[in-house]
Structure prediction request, 122 residues.
Amino acid sequence: MTDPAAARKVTRALVLPGQRRIHMKHEQPRRRRVIVSAIAAMPVAVTVYDVARRYRTDREARAACLTAVVEDLAAIGAETRLVIEQDDSLVGYDNQRLIEAVSVKSTETVALSSFGVRFRAG
Prediction:
């Protein structure tokens, strides 16, 4: 989708009254299908990283996911904006994983600028 504002509008429309945001972990299966269908209808390229079942801890899964994202972005070779939901307790951890992943890809051109999006709890 060349218009990020349009993607945000579609995504915001999926947030139900009383919800602050969408998080698939907290959605019922039927609702997940609605969300996935709406996103699939957008003219975007999407990659889903399903690492939760392969790793013992959330940190290990998150590290594997961040590494895979950097590898995929390096393979694409196009300018891309990476937005990660910011967990204040993991900012340093995430940044270190991203630095490590980019350094492994140092033979390729990888310019990564990431920023976190903070969400208030409750």
In short: The longest helix spans residues 58-76. Helices lie at 4-13, 29-41, 58-76, 91-104. The first strand starts at residue 82 and ends at 85.
